[in-house]
């Protein structure tokens, strides 16, 4: 559905030349929810704004639903953009217009009759759970409700693609969950392809099937959300995952050598990460049964990523040195990742 090829975008700030996107290629399948994660300034927004040519890349190709956008005339591009909805962190609603009028703005070039437009607006508001708020003004709505209006507006022209730029970053955790749930249901009901920019791995965790990690204008790692969560390769991906899965708290705790000695008795701490069916194996029991090695659990966390459980355990292992080595080899054989902390 979306094909970006060797996208490069630089900005001339007067004093310096900033390379915001540095030769990125990205392919997003129809119906996918694709996350783009990275720290502030990594180039996520610029990359996503290249998908609808809100930013025109210096070089590279942008193909959406089989159409090469960079080759279109201005009127053709305007038409093509209607098939690409976008929502933002700050909602971008017109404060002086009602909810219904905000959505109507997106339909001003539509061929629908005024009657049909009214029906369309009502059904869009129904879809986002705001059937009763057509005549409210944005100032009368909560942040979550404003984002729902923005989503309804983005869907007005039946887009095939929805771009979400930090859509939940300004919302509290509970409202974030409800907006992510809405986006998931729209993806299921409408089959709409979504690209979701975020600096929070928790958004990737609960929404995305695939994701790419950006750093300094480049994609440094990409894959299924399950793979990124269970077998992150790059340091930046690991650090995002550690934060999302609370491993940070264990690392912080172990940094204090006195605390560390008190809980581990000086034994090494291993972080075991396992995904999917690997979780069902009674691993700890087997370590004792097969090797006489017992595990002392210091930390445990299970996340569900795209419906797959991914577990993390922080353990010390006690037993004969030789037995512990064999136990570690046994664990690794079961596709459990072992990291010494
Ligand atoms: N219009 C602009 N003019 C000059 N520099 C820009 C412009 N837009 C972005 N940049 C620069 O390009 C780089 C990438 O910015 P971008 O907003 O794409 O990153 P981001 O990952 O989306 O970060 P954030 O989450 O903070 O928005 C940054 O160094 C930024 O300062």
UniProtKB/TrEMBL annotation:
InterPro entries: AAA+_ATPase, ABC_transporter-like_ATP-bd, ABC_transporter-like_CS, ACT-like_dom_sf, MetN_ABC, MetN_ABC_transporter-like, NIL_domain, P-loop_NTPase. Gene3D superfamilies: 3.30.70.260, P-loop containing nucleotide triphosphate hydrolases (3.40.50.300). SUPFAM superfamilies: ACT-like, P-loop containing nucleoside triphosphate hydrolases. Residues 2-241 form the ABC transporter domain. Keywords: Amino-acid transport, ATP-binding, Cell membrane, Membrane, Nucleotide-binding, Translocase, Transport. One of its GO terms (molecular function) is ATP binding. It holds the Pfam family NIL. Transmembrane segments: none annotated. SMART domains: AAA, NIL. PROSITE patterns: ABC_TRANSPORTER_1, ABC_TRANSPORTER_2. PANTHER family: AMINO ACID IMPORT ATP-BINDING PROTEIN, METHIONINE IMPORT ATP-BINDING PROTEIN METN. This is ATP-binding cassette domain-containing protein. It comes from Mesosutterella faecium.
């Amino acid at each position: 559905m979306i094909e970006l090829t060797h996208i490069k975008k630089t900005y001339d700030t007067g004093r310096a030349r900033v390379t915001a996107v540095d030769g990125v290629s990205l392919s997003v399948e129809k119906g996918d929810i694709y996350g783009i994660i990275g720290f502030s300034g990594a180039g996520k927004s610029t990359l996503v704004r290249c998908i609808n040519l809100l930013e025109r890349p210096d070089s590279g190709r942008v193909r959406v639903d089989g159409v090469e956008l960079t080759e279109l005339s201005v009127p053709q591009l305007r038409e093509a953009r209607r098939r690409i909805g976008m929502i933002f962190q700050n909602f971008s609603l017109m404060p002086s217009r009602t909810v219904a009028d905000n959505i109507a703005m997106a339909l001003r070039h539509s061929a629908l009759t005024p009657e049909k437009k009214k029906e369309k607006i009502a059904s869009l508001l129904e879809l986002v759970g705001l059937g009763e708020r057509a005549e409210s003004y944005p100032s009368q709505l909560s942040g979550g409700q404003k984002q729902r209006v923005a989503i309804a507006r983005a869907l007005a022209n039946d887009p095939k693609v929805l771009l979400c730029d930090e859509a939940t970053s300004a919302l509290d955790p509970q409202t974030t969950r409800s907006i992510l749930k809405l986006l998931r249901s729209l993806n299921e009901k409408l089959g709409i392809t979504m690209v979701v920019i975020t600096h929070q791995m928790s958004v990737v965790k609960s929404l995305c099937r695939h994701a790419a990690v950006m750093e300094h204008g480049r994609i440094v790692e990409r894959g299924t959300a399950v793979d990124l969560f269970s077998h992150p390769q790059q340091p930046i991906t690991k650090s995002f995952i550690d934060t999302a899965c609370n491993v940070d708290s264990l690392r912080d705790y172990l940094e204090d050598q006195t605390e560390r000695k008190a809980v581990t008795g000086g034994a090494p701490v291993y972080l075991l990460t396992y995904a999917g069916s690997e979780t069902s194996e009674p691993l700890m029991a087997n370590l004792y049964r097969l090797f006489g090695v017992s595990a002392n659990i210091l930390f445990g966390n299970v996340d569900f990523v795209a419906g797959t459980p991914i577990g993390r355990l922080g353990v010390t292992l006690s037993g004969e040195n030789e037995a512990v080595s064999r136990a570690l080899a046994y664990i690794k054989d079961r596709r459990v990742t072992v990291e010494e902390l």
